[in-house]
Amino acid sequence: MRRLVVGAHYGLRDWLAQRITALIMAVYSVILVYVFLSGTPLAYDAWRDLFSQGWMRVATLLFAFSLAWHAWVGVRDIIMDYVKLDGLRLALEVLVLLLIALYFGWTVQILWR
Amino acid sequence: MPSAAAKKLRPKYLSLPAILFQIRLPLPGWISILHRISGALLFFPFAAWLLFMLDASLASEQGFARVREYLHLPLVKAGLLLFIWSYCHHFCAGIRFLFIDLDRGVDLRTARLTSGVVLIAGLALTAFFGARLW
Q: Fewest Cβ atoms nearer than 10 Å: which of A7, A70, A77, B95?
């Protein structure tokens, strides 16, 4: 029986995704820092208006999506390095995925209230 | 006659005390492990904490005012400072790793130099944003 020994096709994709999502989040971070530093003490109206604009909602959603993928690759790497017991590793991975889903759903709910 | 290397106990298992007290990590190693620790902290609890504050601050004017009050508590400020350091270090170290991916700054001298730059930049940015916060 012939076996493909190099079948884990997701390695390069995740590696690349982690770096692309990092760049997306870096750009978003710089924009948000600029908003924080340029505004004189931030007031509620300005804060709410910022997050009600279309581009900001899309950018924040893109950030949340990037964070979800980036964090999944990173935290899974940490778990693979330190958790040797299969059952515990699987449980932790499921827990992390649930938390990522929760974060993403929460972000969508905040943005489109 | 076996060589000295062959007599060494292999495999060598790393215990926590060994990691903490015996193994002297070089500076690039410190950048790497701090990148990992800060990343884990950012994922949990900091992401949840920030979402909680974003949620409250956008929900209503009262919520916004409550978050502002909340941010004045000393313990909250200390937590926020740790968050800021985690973010800045993760950011700077991440950019360094992106350059290393592109084969830039791989030789020992440059790698050590950029490690120092990353460590100091993370702390300096934390000090800057912390000063704005306080």
A: A7
